[in-house]
Write a sequence for this structure.
């Protein structure tokens, strides 16, 4: 049967890998021939972890998992691949995929005919009796305000390492349990992006192990082609082993404000005005601008309980302006400050709020430590985990929508296709395109301002048809088909395609360069094959 043949082929491929790199057959074994300081493992629990991702929609077990201790380990594995390919001709190699924290949703970190490099924690977790070395710890330069971190470091740990110096990165994601290499391979965005640009605009320098097995330092000045290729490059050109991230003095506290709109036009006008203030002095703009759509009345209750105190309830029925087409929009803004400056914060916030056109009785304010604000989604994660609602399939859809068509998107999708069922939060916030370096591999729409619309959906197997994976996946297709039909030129963020034609269309004018860079830095197409952009020659 096909199944048997596949199994035999896999077994054959695995034996070839073992023969090539000299792996012992124990559950966790060393690589004497390669001199790897970390660990190459075929331990079932390692293989199981590397077979799945946050999406829980695809599964693909690798032949083995490498826990590297250094960039050298990563390079040794890739050079072993090259040696195998050379020895055995076209079909002699194997694929290599870096896995940051596996928070992709469509199998982007998986690879069946190869090795997953578990970047997060690397050899640290597997250190025995101090024999093995481990990936380098973060190193902060207080004077030059940057931190050098291992590519698999989680952002939460980057933050912890810099706070001791009173410093912190400037540009974030909403959730901090993501790896530096993983977000830099995409973009890394949150409510600070309008002001500081995405995370890929806040990196000075990288160490990258290319698909040729070379360890290369790169920056704007040194090997700029590789530097720009890797940023937003979906793991196609090399494995980021070190990133030098820009820091700023860490704020101490955050004033966090939410206001509601029933009118979409007023909502987007205010969001666009707020991000147009990016060039103003710090005290004349907010530090973070996001927002979300409320199409489902019941979400209001969740939303109230997670953010508002019982003394501060949201009573929609009391609003004079009734929701427009049943949909409400929530603007979310923050102001960072130092404790010593708290009186001026009140004034700054008040002056900005005065200019906005939200439902007057809908201002909700809270005040918290900077770290607690940055780590806010982790609290929601713990809550969902306790209810068994975290490890479920996630058919997420993230789109960049040009500002000129956002009203059409609202009419057709928020007030149309979605009905009153979202199965998760819907984020919406604008960004300034000039904060994205056009030389990077990241792809954004044509307008100077574009919105992120993130449908962060969870599928449930509870017999309710509108919450099933099938239903939600179908709705995602309908949304994309609607945009195509109406000529709304959206770009997928965290893109997922399966054909070359679709990828060529996604990259648009960047496609020829993307292909050239692939030829230069990963000519055998062994890296991050789970993205399904290039077919491996192995
Ligand atoms: P992985 O899923 O492990 O890897 C992603 C891709 O990058 C893979 O192709 C992998 O091969 C490659 N890769 C991983 N590490 C490296 C490396 N060191 N060098 C080269 N390539 C590498 N994104 C945002 O921008 N903003 C958000 O606010 C945000 N919030 C999120 C919240 C949650 C709960 C989740 C699940 C995701 C969120 N994301 C957000 C998306 C997230 O940034 C991406 O899914 C990212 O890829 C996850 O990082 P990771 O470390 O888990 O990467």
């Amino acid at each position: 049967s096909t199944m048997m043949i596949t199994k035999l082929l896999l077994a054959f491929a695995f034996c070839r890998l073992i023969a090539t790199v000299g792996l012992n057959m124990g559950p966790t074994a060393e690589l004497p021939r390669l001199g790897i300081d970390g660990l190459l493992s075929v331990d079932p629990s390692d293989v199981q972890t590397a077979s799945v991702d946050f999406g829980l929609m695809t599964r693909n077990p690798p032949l083995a998992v490498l826990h590297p201790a250094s960039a050298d380990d990563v390079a040794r594995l890739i050079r072993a691949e090259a040696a195998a390919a050379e020895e055995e001709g076209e079909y002699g190699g194997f694929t290599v995929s870096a896995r940051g924290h596996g928070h992709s949703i469509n199998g982007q970190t998986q690879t069946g005919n190869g090795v997953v490099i578990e970047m997060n924690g690397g050899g640290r977790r597997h250190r025995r009796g101090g024999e093995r070395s481990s990936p380098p710890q973060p190193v902060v330069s207080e004077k030059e305000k940057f931190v050098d971190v291992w590519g698999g470091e989680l952002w939460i740990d980057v933050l912890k390492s810099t706070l001791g110096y009173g410093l912190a990165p400037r540009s974030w994601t909403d959730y901090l349990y993501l790896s530096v290499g993983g977000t830099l391979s995409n973009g890394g965005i949150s409510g600070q992006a309008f002001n500081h640009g995405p995370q890929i605009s806040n990196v000075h320098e990288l160490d990258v192990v290319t698909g040729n097995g070379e360890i290369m330092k790169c920056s704007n000045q040194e090997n700029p082609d590789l530097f720009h290729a890797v940023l937003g490059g979906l793991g196609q050109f090399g494995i980021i082993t070190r990133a030098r991230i820009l820091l700023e003095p860490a704020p101490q506290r955050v004033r966090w404000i939410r206001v509601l709109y029933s009118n979409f036009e007023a909502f987007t006008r205010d969001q666009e005005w707020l991000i147009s203030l990016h060039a103003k002095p710090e005290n004349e703009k907010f530090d973070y601008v996001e927002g979300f759509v409320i199409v489902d009345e019941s979400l209001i209750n969740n939303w109230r309980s997670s953010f508002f105190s019982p003394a501060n309830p949201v009573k929609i029925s009391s609003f004079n302006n009734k929701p427009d087409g049943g949909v409400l929009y929530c603007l979310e803004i923050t102001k960072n400050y130092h404790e010593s400056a708290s009186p001026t914060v009140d004034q700054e916030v008040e002056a900005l709020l005065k200019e906005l056109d939200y439902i007057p009785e809908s201002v909700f304010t809270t005040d918290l430590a900077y770290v607690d604000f940055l780590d806010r989604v982790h609290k929601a994660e713990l809550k969902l985990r306790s209810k068994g609602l975290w490890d479920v399939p996630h058919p997420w859809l993230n789109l960049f929508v040009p500002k000129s068509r956002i009203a059409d998107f609202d009419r057709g999708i928020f007030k149309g296709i979605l009905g009153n069922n979202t199965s998760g939060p819907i984020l919406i916030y604008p960004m300034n395109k000039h904060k994205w370096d056009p030389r990077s591999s990241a792809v954004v729409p044509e307008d100077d301002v574009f919105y992120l619309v993130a449908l962060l959906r969870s599928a449930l197997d509870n017999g309710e048809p509108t919450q099933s994976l099938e239903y939600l996946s179908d709705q995602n297709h309908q949304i994309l088909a609607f945009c195509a039909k109406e000529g709304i030129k959206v770009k997928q963020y965290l893109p997922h395609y399966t054909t070359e034609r679709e990828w060529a269309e996604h990259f648009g004018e960047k496609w020829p360069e993307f292909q050239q860079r692939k030829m230069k830095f990963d000519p055998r197409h062994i890296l991050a094959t789970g993205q399904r952009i290039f077919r491996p020659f192995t």
